[in-house]
Structures are given as structure tokens and as C-alpha cells.
Amino acid sequence: MSDYSPIPISSSSVAPTEIQQPDSLSLEESKRLALTIAEAADDRKGSDIILLNVSEVSYLADYFVLVTGFSNVQVRAIARSIEDKVEEDWQRYPLRTEGKAEGSWILHDYGEVIVHIFMPQERQFYNLEAFWGHAERIEYTSLANS
């Protein structure tokens, strides 16, 4: 038999912990968030930056942002740059982050925008551009190249 006995807690004595979800963004605001993310990735020399407007073909998000980094360190630096820029400009944090420990494919889920930061091998293998080929594709042009 266990020594554990649950202690009843009155609902009035403990305030429920509520995680505030950010307000939903319009499609135009989602695009601006995706562009902010692309700029932050570009600041860390992310390559082949593509925005996919998946709002018409998926309920998962409005936009995907795909970025290539050429080392695990660079992939992590791009991810951190995106986190910092979105926090600073939008006061938003990723709802979920995956892959930071490995650093070969990091995913940030901002709700309306999902970011994929890949090493070249992972990007080629998973080929999300082809999988979501029916989505509108927006090429990002680096501000440094303008």
C-alpha cells in the first residue's frame, strides 16, 4: 500500500494557470511575420529562403518559411536570430520548437507561420517545396543583394 494520499485543494484557493495564446493574425499579418522571420534568417546568412503560402491548401498554418544553414552551428544561430527578432518585433514566442539539440533541422511553430531551418541534406531529403508544390511560392530576396 502506498503512503501517498492526495491532498484536496479547494478551487478557490488556487488560481488556475492559464497560458495566453497570442491573438490570431490576419493573412496579411501572417505574411508580415513570415517576412520578419525571413529577414532574421538572412541576418545569419541563411540560404535559399522561401515562403510558402499554404493558407489555401492546409489548416496547419498560413505560411511556411524554409531556410538552409550549412552547419549545425549556423542552423542554431539562424533559429536563435528568428526567436530574438520575432520576440522583439512581434512580442511572440514559438508555440513549439523541435530539433534544437540535433541542429540539422529545427522547427519553430508560431501558429500562423511554421519555420523549417535545415541542413542541405535534410532539406533535399524531405523536399517540402515539392510536397507543398501546390502552395504559392514566394522567393525571398536578401536585402544585402538589393
UniProtKB/TrEMBL annotation:
InterPro entries named in the record = Iojap/RsfS/C7orf30, NT_sf
Q: Which GO terms describe its cellular component?
A: cytoplasm
Gene3D superfamilies listed in its UniProt record: Beta Polymerase, domain 2
* SUPFAM superfamilies, A to Z: Nucleotidyltransferase
From the record, what ranges are coiled-coil?
none
Q: Where in the cell is it found?
A: Cytoplasm
**Entry keywords, A to Z:** Cytoplasm, Repressor, Translation regulation
NCBIfam families from the entry?
Answer: rsfS_iojap_ybeB
In the record, the note on similarity to other proteins reads: Belongs to the Iojap/RsfS family.
- What is said about its interaction partners and assembly? Interacts with ribosomal protein uL14 (rplN).
This protein is called what? Ribosomal silencing factor RsfS
What is the taxonomic lineage of the source species?
Bacteria, Bacillati, Cyanobacteriota, Cyanophyceae, Desertifilales
Protein encoded by which gene? rsfS
